[in-house]
Every structure is written in structure tokens, then in C-alpha cells.
Amino acid sequence: MEQYNDQPKLYPSPGEAFAILALTFFLSILFVPFLRLVFGFDPQSKWSLFLTELFMIVPAVMLLRRRGYPLPLVLRLRPVSARVLALSVFIGLALAIIGDEIERLTHLILPLPNELESLFSSELLKDILTAGSIPEWILLIMTLVVIAGLFEEMLFRGMLQNALEERMDITRAVISTAIIFSLIHFNPYWVVPIAILGVFLGVLAWKSQSIFPSAIVHAVNNGLALVANNLSDEKTDMFLWNGHVHPLILLAAGVGLYYGMRLFYRFIEEDTEIPTLLNQPL
Questions:
Q1: CA atoms within 13 A on the CB side of 26
Q2: N or C: which end of the chain has fewer CB within 10 A?
Q3: Is the distance from CB of 134 to CB of 278 less than 8 angstroms?
Q4: Distance (Å, whole) CA 25 – CA 245
């Protein structure tokens, strides 16, 4: 693990990371009208969403390379064992269930005026995230589950959190990254659940020194949201109780998350102690 410590010059400063992140999202916003003007893509189309997510990592990678930073180190592209990846799926399921209930409570505690309610309603995303065919399912899974899960983790739990960890303690670095990650989604109903999710993502990335566990958790969360968006109300109501996640399901998710995190810590420590190709320096 020495390769990840005491080498601050190998990482961008927090100011550099914030600048790169801001420029990345600014260029991603401009990329949408660019697709419309040059290629005629509808900004609300699934292809526009796919290409924008695909483009998101490009500016950051180019800037980091130009500055001479080692990308595998800065972006935390360190491999982990198969059992850690499998456990990450389990943790992702638990966090998705808990996050769904937190969002429901946020709607209950923080009611907005009707105008703002419609503005931030998930109904605005329902059409673009609705799959009407197998090709559309493949495109949406590639966009939201694979690409978004991996690239967003490279930017936040990789570049940004790494930069913050070099300047502050791990607790503040994880929480700061999680708050920025939640605010970047521009939805008041998602701030709390995404911030809580971001804290767990940050802990997973820090403990494993890899973004792959957090990318899987992120992907599972997005994947379940995509599936729920395409299910009828009758099918989703099977898991609800008075408009909330059924208490038994919520309890199971809480217990699963607790033991899942304990196992995650144990697996990472065991994998680190046993010399394998997985824990050799990049």
C-alpha cells in the first residue's frame, strides 16, 4: 500500500480536481446542443444520454494526462478480488432499498410548491428512461448501469476524493465528496439519499483503494432505478406498505448492509495480507 501514500505530487490538488470536475460537467452540458447541431440528435433521446455519459470522462482524462498524473493511481483503477466484487452487488442492493425509502421520506418531510414539485419530479425522466424494446434496454443499461456507474466513480471517488484525501482526514474527504456528488444531481429530493449513498461509496473506494466496488454499488443502484421506472405501479406496489418500503424489506436491507460492510472490511484486509497480483503496485 506504500504506493498510495506519502506521494502528494502524484495527485492533483483539491483546486485542480474541482477545476477539472467543473470543466468536465460544463463541457458535458455543451455536448448536448453540439450533438443536436452537428448530428441532429434530439436532446431528450436515449442516444444523446448515452453519448453524453460516454463523453463525460474524456475531458478529465485528457487534462490529467496533460498534467502528467498517473491515471490508474489518480482514478483508483486498482483490481480487487472476485469475492469483493460479488459482495459489492449485495451491498448495492441493500443501499438501493434504503435509499428508496429515504427519498420517500424526503418527499413527505420536504413538500415543495406544485410548480417546483413538477420541476423536480422524476416524471421528467420517465420517458427517456422507459425502454420499449430490447435494443433500448441494452442502450439504457450501457448508459446508466455500466458507463455512468464506472465513469462517475472515476471522477468522484477516484480523482476528487483522492485529491481531498491528500489534504484532509478521510472522514471529511468522504463526506465532502458525497455532498458534492449529491448536489451535482440538481434535485432537492435526491440530495439526502444520494449523499448517504455517496458516503458508503467513498468508504468502499477508500478501504479498497479501488473504484470498482463503488462502481458496482453505483451500477446496482442505477439498475434498480431503471427497472423500477419500467415496471407498472401494480408490480412496484408489491414491495410497498402504505406508500413506503415494506418494513420487513427495509429491516432485511439494514441488516444486510451492516453485515455486508463488515464482510467487505474483512475481505479487503485478508486480500491485502495475502500477496497476489491483486495487491501488487500498479
A1: 6
A2: N
A3: no
A4: 34
Percent of the chain exceeding pLDDT 70 equals 88
Q: How many CA atoms lie within 13 A of 75 on its CB side?
A: 24
The maximal CA–CA distance of the chain, rounded, in angstroms, is 58
**pLDDT over 60 (residue 279):** no
Helix (H) or strand (E) holding 240: strand 240-241
DSSP string, 77-108: -----HHHHHHHHHHHHHHHHHHHHHHHHHHH
Smallest Cα–Cα separation from 20: which of 8, 11, 10, 7?
11
CA pair distance 144, 221, nearest whole angstrom: 10
Mean pLDDT of the residues in the chain: 86
65's grid cell = 494526462
3-state secondary structure of 166: coil
Identify the band that residue 117 occupies on the pLDDT scale cut at 50, 70 and 90: low
Q: Which three cell numbers stand for residue 97?
A: 432499498
**What pLDDT is recorded for position 113?**
62
Around Cβ 187, how many Cβ atoms within 10 Å?
17
Q: What is the value of pTM for the model shown?
A: 0.87
**Residues 30, 148: Cα–Cα separation, whole Å:** 18
Helices (H), the chain: 14-39, 46-55, 57-66, 71-74, 82-109, 114-119, 123-126, 134-140, 148-153, 161-165, 170-183, 191-208, 212-230, 233-236, 247-273
- pLDDT the model gives residue 82: 94
CA-to-CA distance for 257 and 83, rounded, in angstroms? 16
